[in-house]
Design a protein that fits this description.
By secondary structure, the chain is an alpha/beta fold. It has helices at residues 8-22, 55-62, 75-78, 114-122, 124-152, 180-188, 206-215, 234-242, 260-263, 282-291, 317-323, 328-334, 351-365, 375-383, 389-403, 422-428, 434-451, 459-466, 470-479, and strands at 25-30, 35-38, 66-68, 91-99, 102-111, 196-199, 224-228, 268-272, 293-295, 302-304, 308-313, 337-340, 372-373, 408-409.
Length: 485
């Protein structure tokens, strides 16, 4: 049994995803040179050995990556392959997969057409870092399985378990376009002790970036603890973050409870919506960041914690500091490494990538097969501003896949709020002014959020998602005659 025989389904799924996003074919070989996954032409060759003397066999032997953009001229790398004359590949890039410094496989991307070759040549400097991260992901999966096996065998020195599904920079969609500069900065601080503050609107992927920083760091085998500071009632937030001793307050556990900082010891804590932490708690958070110690509610003993802090917010902290609702000293302690995620409307080149990714995901989950969007619809969706960013786009694609009856999705599968029915009415109707059109649109958005099952009629969560106060939400619901529930 080879290393890859334990994760065949995982690596085939990952190969399919890469191929879908890059528009290139992908193949993966195990340590014996057997093709264990593949897309396109290579999907039919799964289970068969790669030719002796081939490029990928050479990578298995040397453990070194390589790239070829003219198979016939690279005799040193392909000359011994008995299928050289029949080879249809125009460009190939291969990278070894290591596990604890041992080469256990190869992952490669291949271009068969002149257009694919040109794409690979144009982005040649980016392929090796991408494949390196892909290789790391596979290695991480193998090490996870090792740890689980050791744990089931009652081995005392068991490997610490990661508390988050691995996310790597190479997996972040838009890494080569809108996210390139952000990821370049994030890579420099993966192993830093400095606090990272991720800025961006709701739905831009702040938590995903935080997970990638954690998983690429030396703390990746330790806990990743995420806390949404806006979702926890103010009266409970202190005990949730810092823990409490038994009997500290009415209803508390007799044995007490560790806080999120304690649970994240040796790992990473992600403080989402840190701008919503009440002013009364901010001095205590500042002390944790400065002293690396926590005091439980009702406790008399100070506890030391070794935690990497990554915070995120959509709020304008600078304005809050000027208004006195956010401490200036805490702001500077959090804003050591600022990273800003742009909204989708500022990186429209990424919209097509997300559309393909989510089409594949939900086409697979909902067993609808391979789906595609009409070209006109893609252009329309790229022109939309996506106020809810990636989260909204994902929800729209999930809706369309559910509604799809064939393999090609058109306008008739769009969610109602994306039908753009107002456009012809604006031209041809004199009875609909701007105020009425805006009101109709606002009402439709509120109705959609109120009907969404994911919120369970939780008005506070809806208000937070829409970045308005709860009182404003109720006022608008009353204005439009919407059910308060």
């Amino acid at each position: 049994m080879t290393e890859f025989s334990r994760i065949e389904e995982f690596i085939q799924s990952y190969a399919d995803n890469i191929s879908k996003v890059l528009g290139l074919d992908v193949t993966i070989l195990d340590e014996q040179g057997i093709r264990v996954s593949g897309t396109g032409y290579y999907q039919e060759l799964i289970g068969l050995p790669a030719p002796e003397g081939s490029f990928f066999r050479m990578i298995l032997q040397t453990g070194q990556p390589g790239m070829i953009f003219d198979m016939k001229k690279n005799e040193s790398q392909c000359g011994n392959c008995k299928f050289l004359q029949q080879c249809r590949e125009l460009a190939t890039i291969g990278f070894p997969v290591h596990k604890r410094e041992k080469t256990v496989g190869v992952i490669g991307i291949i271009g068969f057409s002149p257009e694919q070759k040109e794409k690979m040549l144009h982005h040649s400097e980016k392929w090796m870092p991408f494949l390196q991260h892909t290789s790391s992901l596979i290695e991480h999966k193998l090490l996870e399985l090792d740890a689980e096996r050791e744990k089931s065998c009652n081995i005392q020195e068991e490997m610490p378990q990661a508390s988050v599904h691995p996310v790597y920079f190479a997996q972040l969609i838009g890494a080569e376009t809108g996210l390139r500069d952000v990821i370049a900065k994030a890579k420099k601080v993966t192993n830093s002790i400095s606090t990272v503050l991720i800025r961006g609107e709701s739905g831009t992927g702040k938590e995903l970036l935080a997970k990638a920083i954690h998983c690429e760091s030396g703390r990746s085998r330790q806990p990743f603890v995420a806390v949404n500071c806006a979702a926890i009632p103010e009266t409970l937030l202190e005990s949730e973050l810092f823990g409490y001793e038994g009997g500290a307050f009415t209803g508390s556990r007799r044995e007490g409870k560790p806080g999120k900082f304690e649970l994240a010891h040796k790992g990473t804590i992600f403080l989402d919506e840190v701008g919503d932490i009440p002013l009364s708690l901010q001095p205590k958070l500042l002390r944790v960041l400065q002293e690396k110690t926590v005091d439980r509610v009702g406790g008399i003993k100070t506890l030391g914690v070794d935690v990497r802090v990554i915070a995120a917010t959509h709020r304008d902290l600078e304005s809050m500091v000027r208004e006195g609702t956010f401490r200036e000293d805490l702001y500077y302690r959090l804003n050591v490494i600022p990273l800003r995620l742009k909204p989708l409307r500022e990186r429209t080149e990424d919209i097509a990538l997300y559309l393909r990714h989510f089409l594949y995901r939900y086409g697979t989950l909902l067993q609808k097969g391979r789906l595609e969007l009409e070209a006109q619809l893609v252009q329309r969706l790229q022109a939309y501003e996506w106020p809810g960013n990636i989260r909204q786009l994902e929800n729209a694609v999930e809706y369309m896949v559910n509604m799809a009856e064939g393999q090609v999705i058109g306008n008739e599968e769009l969610p109602e709020y994306l039908l753009f029915e107002d456009e012809p009415r604006i031209v041809g109707s004199s009875d609909l002014g701007l105020e009425k059109l805006v009101a109709d649109y606002e009402r439709s958005i509120l109705q959609r959020y109120l009907n969404a099952g994911k919120y369970g009629q939780d008005k506070a969560a809806i208000a937070n998602e829409l970045q308005i106060s709860l009182s404003t939400l109720y006022r608008k619901m009353e204005k439009y005659g919407l059910e308060k529930g």
